[in-house]
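Quick check before the chapter quiz. The format below is the same one you will see on the exam, so make sure you can read both the input and the output lines.
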Amino acid sequence: MPEYTVRPLGPDTWDPYATLVERHNGVWGGCWCLAFHPKYPDRGQSLECNRALKRRLVHDGLAHAAVVFDVDRAIGWCQFGTPAELPSIYHRKEYEATLVEPPAYRITCFFVDRDYRREGVSAVALRGALELIAQAGGGAVEGYPQDTQGKRVSASFLYNGTRSLFERAGFTFDRPKGKNHCVMRRTVEAR
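Here is the expected output.
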């Protein structure tokens, strides 16, 4: 497997990140990885508005991701943030009805360049996100992956990752969420 590097999403990595998103037509119909952020008034108005909003959130320190690089080319990411930064999770009513203790951080989505899928980029991105969370103070981290139950699923449906990906990264199953998703938790020590 090639050696990839991970860098945090920020003003200095915006251009390669944006190039990756633009290579994939804004990702999932122009989402720009905003679906889990609060419902800002300009979100969803157009592809250009989504791009501008994401850039603003990144520059204001309100959007976080571990961006995976193949040399200087961004090839994927794992988005993470606090529940206040990423409140719009799916099946939220069900999730809140069974919530015991809120996490310090959420991992909400992954994206991998179509030319690098099924090469372990998501695992690299997840490890990178956990390291960035540790550097930011650590705490309880939740992810909401799809529980594929060993079945092969199209990568385009795995934007939350898979249960097995999270298990390999030291997460434990907490509870089901929605039809095919679950809540996985892990505590990350501060560094």
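If your answer matched, good. The beta strands are 5-8, 64-70, 73-81, 105-112, 139-143, 172-177, 181-188.
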